[in-house]
Design a protein that fits this description.
This protein is mainly beta. The chain contains three helices and 18 strands.
Length: 232
């Protein structure tokens, strides 16, 4: 959930950080049936961040045609927004909107800030980049189906991503969630019957689902929770 403030308040808030701690926290993009999709960013730091004018761009990362924008992206922040530590900002696809309605995680209801249409996330290898208003990369996630030569990029220029997710056999993972401040990740469920089930693997749009302690992370396993996956 976000914090929205008036432009005058933003101008006065000189303490707002310049991107420190901002991450792409969760993406769901390729599921059974018609794709449930959402993208969530999180202030994973310790200071407020002004994300006015920011967006998430999805760059095709298949070796055959890298660098093109996918999913109708960039998906931009709407209005003047400052995210406090622990707050999220979420873009929701129209097919996932009814699927997550009424759901919650640990008692916190799911929410989203912008409702988009369909096909907002690429289904083959892509690089998701959180970009500021000047197009600077703040955080990047390379999500891959393992195709030979596929590479993380920003508009075709190779980059070293902050996190890499996949492949799931020869498929792109359905999605991912960041588990902790060390950027360990888990995959989200592919089967829509297992989404919105109250677990991290079921997707938690608009909720900061961070596991609080290393002990809890070890118990669940950093390589992934009990998510359903595709193998081929």
């Amino acid at each position: 959930m976000k914090a929205i403030v008036m432009a005058s308040a933003i101008a006065a808030m000189s303490g707002a950080a310049l991107g420190q701690g901002m991450i792409i926290n969760e993406i769901l993009g390729s599921t059974s049936g018609s794709d449930w999709e959402f993208i969530e960013i999180l202030n994973n730091g310790t200071a407020p961040v002004d994300i006015t004018g920011w967006g998430v761009a999805l760059y095709d990362s298949d070796i055959a045609a890298p660098g093109g924008l996918d999913g109708g992206s960039p998906h931009f922040v709407v209005g003047n927004v400052i995210l406090n530590p622990g707050e999220t900002y979420t873009w929701m696809g129209s097919l996932a909107d009814p699927g997550y309605a009424g759901g919650s995680y640990n008692g916190t209801p799911f929410s989203w800030d912008v409702l988009l249409g369909t096909n907002i996330v690429e289904n083959s290898s892509y690089t998701a980049i959180l970009e500021d208003g000047s197009g600077n990369a703040i955080f990047s996630a390379f999500v891959t189906d393992g195709g030979a030569g596929d590479f993380a990029n920003q508009a075709g220029a190779a980059i070293t991503p902050d996190i890499t997710v996949g492949p799931d056999g020869t498929f792109t993972p359905a999605g991912f969630a960041v588990l902790d401040k060390n950027l360990n990740t888990t995959w989200l469920n592919f089967d829509t019957a297992l989404l919105n089930d109250g677990t991290i693997a079921g997707g938690t749009p608009g909720v900061n689902q961070k596991i609080p302690t290393p002990g809890a992370l070890a118990l669940l396993g950093v390589s992934g929770l009990a998510a359903t996956r595709r193998r081929r």
